[in-house]
Amino acid sequence: MAESVSGNLAIVGAQWGDEGKGKIVDLLTPAFSIVARSQGGHNAGHTVLVNKREFILHLIPSGILHPDVTCVIGNGVVIDPGALLTEIDELERQGISVRDRLLVSEKAHVILPYHRELERLAEDGRGAQRIGTTSRGIGPSYEDKVGRRGVRLGDLADAAVDGPLAELIRANVNTRDRLIGGRASTDWRAVHGEISGFWERLKPMVTDVSKHLHQASKAGRTILFEGAQGTMLDIDHGTYPYVTSSNATIGGMCTGLGIGPQVIGAVLGIAKAYTTRVGAGPLPTELVGAKGEHLRAAGGEYGASTGRARRCGWFDAVVVQYAARVNGINALAVTKLDVLDDMDELNICTAYRCGGERLTDPPVRHDQFAECVPEYETLPGWSRSKPTAGVRREEDLPAEARRYLERLEAVSGVPAAIVSTGSDRADTIVRDGSLATRWIGSGS
């Protein structure tokens, strides 16, 4: 039996993604040797601000901004090789060394040009029922993976025009052309040439990630597991069908990296001090008027990958306590507290009213979820007190902000270990005696 490696930490989104995981990963990374990502594709985006320099990451873990850290992309991630190489080139242009510190699983599935086309066609065909995908081919790539017809990164080593890779691409392209009405929209030879052409640049980084992590753990190297998206976008546990195509919850860490659950020592859930989501689907606490616009503007709520405006609403404790349960979250990092600085009053959703019932768990059916009316608890804001922006010690927070955090903890059922009060790495409170002090010191 493998030993428990309690020094390792997993970070998961406790809402609909975009919770600010990038900053928290960046903050914690110095305590770890490896940062590993397990799922999703370049539809995810992490924005990290370091010394007033902004870095936007899509596939590469946020730990890459620290020079002594190895970053890992697991088999559960679907990879557009061109997008990955573009991201590497951009980071290296900004002075960040990548190629000698990035490892990519040979078992990760590849996003091919026809995947993007299929996703666009599928979205257009849904009409008013659109999911709101990024149309970057992530979903169709996962479909091919589950359908046992996918192309994996290690397959790109075979460049022969009459080899198994070429045959697989030819069969897939022909099948897709039939699915879209017989229109020969893609030349399989061009796809094969483009994809196999990436191999020489990727080859030095491609490896058996599961074995690497196993050996690193045995050698005492600590691992930070970086999640993408959020619990409510999980393919199994989210607001289906308005979800992503992978498991964004804790189980996806194990299957997406080839590790056992005992390797994960603790789970830190990331939640904004309010709620956002991108795309379609239920959002019970959504604010559609001036207050929603204020949150969007104050929080810079636009997607790092797509630039799409995020829908904004009050903190939803029903969602966060559900995320805590399905992920086994030990503590929270509450982000963007400073965005609430100008609010006179704050609402916290503690339950839903739906079909004459009071619910304290999200309903399974998305149509029921969309009809849920939030039950609110109202607290005073701190607009007439000093702001929280840039505050780095808990005792320096306004009394109303401290009370608000206490209520978030109480209604979510999870203690807050970290509070973020700004975009910069340094604008952070690490609470004394919390889980986070194991990896970073408390105070300023």
Keywords:
444 residues; alpha/beta; Adenylosuccinate Synthetase, Chain A, domain 3; Adenylosuccinate Synthetase, subunit A, domain 2; 2 domains; 10-stranded mixed beta sheet; 4-stranded mixed beta sheet; 13 helices; 19% strand; globular; disordered N terminus
Describe the protein's architecture and organization.
This protein is of the alpha/beta class. It folds into two domains: 321 residues, Adenylosuccinate Synthetase, subunit A, domain 3 (Adenylosuccinate Synthetase, Chain A, domain 3), CATH 3.90.170; 95 residues, Adenylosuccinate Synthetase, subunit A, domain 2, CATH 1.10.300. The protein is 30% helix and 19% strand. The strands form five sheets. Strands 9-7-5-2-10-1-11-15-19-20 form a ten-stranded mixed sheet, sandwiched between helices. Strands 14, 16, 17 and 18 form a four-stranded mixed sheet that branches. It has a two-stranded antiparallel sheet with strand order 3-4. Helix 3 crosses helix 4 and helix 5 packs across helix 6. It is globular and about 70 Å long. The two termini are 41 Å apart. 50% of the residues are buried.
Total strand segments: 20
Mean pLDDT: 91
Which sequence of strands runs across the widest sheet?
A: 9-7-5-2-10-1-11-15-19-20
CATH architectural type of the largest domain: Alpha-Beta Complex
The level of helicity is 25-40%
Oligomer: single chain
User: What general form does the structure show?
Assistant: globular
SS content category: alpha/beta
Number of helical regions: 13
